[in-house]
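In the laboratory, one determines a bound structure by crystallizing the protein with its ligand and collecting diffraction data. In a computational setting the workflow is compressed into a single prediction: the sequence and the ligand go in, and a structural description comes out. We illustrate the idea with zinc ion.
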Amino acid sequence: MKILKWVGIIVLVLGATAFTLFMIYVNPMMQKMKKTSVVNYDKDLTIVLGGGGNSGILTSDSLVIVIDTKMGDAAEQLSKKVKELAGSKPILVINTHFHSDHTGGNKFYKGQTIIAGGNYTKEEWTKQNGDEALPTQWLKDKMDIKMGSDTVTLFNIGKNVHTASDIVVYLHKRKMLFTGDIVLNKQTPALLGVADPDGYMYTFDMLPKLFDIQKIVPGHGEIGGIELIDNFRQYFVDMKTAATDDSKKDELVAKYKDWGQLPFFMSPGATIKVFKKKMQQ
Ligand SMILES: [Zn+2]
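The predicted complex, in structure-token form:
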């Protein structure tokens, strides 16, 4: 009986600790992620930040493009807005990658075209997202779409970066790049599965050579300029240094204390772990 009492106390203490950690660290971040804000960028471009990944709605006389479909309630709200803007025009959905905070609303676009990166297998996609709202087209390399007076380029990075198949979307006239989670603004990355810091570094170098970038809509966080790439590159450089030089670790981790984090999962510590694992390989 005495043992049972102690087990009970330990379970209670662990439960209370988990709840406290959740309320202090996880819940505010989750509430923050759920919130959306609408940027009416110009007549044909609306950007909806938050509610999962950031989204763009681009309209023309003949087509409406949606970049990333969000999650939960925000996904449904976005789809209503898109359908209102589209009327009878066809809708083209682009998923920058297969994480559910960017694909959660796909199910609201039944019968429309949904494009995602062609390096995923159908099985991998279904494992992440279920059967519902599977893409109808898999982009292996690059695609140009005429949208009124602008051209939209979809580009599959083609190697492991955030996932095995990340797509960026460039609006030529606006010199604007939607990066998905390859670039985040003041948020630490979730590096899961095949996510590869070397892939990020490669992409940070490649993107400004490929496109004339003046505006960046990151996967999460506020819209910015080309400096978003530089800031995110610096994060990876710093975490690599922290992984190799213990004496600099505390200072480098503290540098990012204002960035969005979730303990163990999205944090400087988690990124350092990925680097350390890579160095052991
Ligand atoms: Zn995301």
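The chain has one domain: 35-231. Keep in mind that any predicted model is a hypothesis to be tested, not a measurement.
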